[in-house]
Amino acid sequence: MNFSIQTIVPENYPSQLREIPEVPVTLSIVGAPLDPEGLYLSVVGSRTHTTYGADVCDKLIRGLAGSGIIIVSGLALGIDSIAHRSALKAGLKTIAFPGSGLSEKALYPATNLSLAKEILAAGGSLVSEFKADEKPRDWFFPQRNRLIAGIARAVLVIEAADKSGTLITAHLALDYNRELLSVPGPITSPTSLGTNLLIKQGAVPITRSEDILEIFNLKQDTLFSEKEIDLTNLSRNEKEIMALLSEPLSRDDILNTIETSISELNSLLSAMEIKGLIKEEYGEMRRI
């Protein structure tokens, strides 16, 4: 499919984006128009993320389901892609600012073309200030980062090395007087050096979705609640697994806890997935 690229001018930008220095004279957009008063949360992080970073990103964004918050990121590999996909799974609109033009032959990275199409199919948008066929150049990325920071009410950083492009976006958020949010991480992890430093410098530490909702003055009880699951008719092993999965666990972790064989456990987990009780992501089982 060929992207239908439209041009918009500052009067059609979200109000926050009109406040930044060097407002783009025009922007190219594919997909739905930008909401002038939308609740934009920009999510940025490392391309070389850890399992911890991926899990945290997914969990925090899924916890925003029903809030109306719009997830913004850069379509890059790593945390950007996870943020977009998690927003799609949560039923949240998501906006991508790639570091390239918006034609299919220029869109970067090319491996995320299918993700870009998913974003559009779900009512989201692709936005760029570069010409349609312009392929990425090194200086395009910090240039587009100012838009990711500028459009947002808050910028959430999930994993960043102590010297990274992600921190450029974080510092732009501070320059633009945006709320800067950061996920703390293990002190032994190189990808947490940047996020922990940001917290030390005054960023708001984020450990749960409710922390983000508070920044946007939203309450948990205003969101669409997840479907209630009747646990009364479950078997003993099913109830035991549901109790164990208050936090995601690998199959090996579950096997080491309950008394059953590998084959019986795999059959049980498969049956529970079919029932819509659990699902497997990033090599771990979790409750739905």
Would you write up a description of this structure?
- This protein is an alpha/beta fold and 288 residues long.
- The protein folds into two domains: 6-222, 3-Layer(aba) Sandwich (Rossmann fold); 236-287, Orthogonal Bundle (Arc Repressor Mutant, subunit A), CATH 1.10.10.
- The chain contains ten helices and eleven strands.
- The protein has helices spanning 51-62, 79-90, 113-121, 140-150, 165-175, 193-200, 209-215, 236-244, 251-255, 262-274, and strands at residues 6-8, 27-31, 39-45, 69-73, 94-96, 125-128, 154-158, 179-182, 204-205, 278-281, 284-287.
- Strands 1-2-6-5-4-3-7-8-9 form a nine-stranded mixed beta sheet, with helices on both faces. It has a two-stranded antiparallel ribbon with strand order 10-11.
- Strand 5 (94-96), helix 3 (113-121) and strand 6 (125-128) form a beta-alpha-beta unit.
- The longest helix has 13 residues, at 262-274.
- The chain is globular.
- The two termini are 34 Å apart.
- The model is unreliable at 224-228 (pLDDT under 50).
- Tell me the CATH architecture of the largest domain: 3-Layer(aba) Sandwich
> Looking across the biggest beta sheet, what order are the strands in?
1-2-6-5-4-3-7-8-9
Global Rg? 20 Å
How confident is the prediction overall: mean pLDDT?
90
List keywords for this structure.
10 helices; 2 domains; Arc Repressor Mutant, subunit A; two-stranded antiparallel sheet; alpha/beta; 288 residues; 34% helix; Rossmann fold; globular; nine-stranded mixed beta sheet
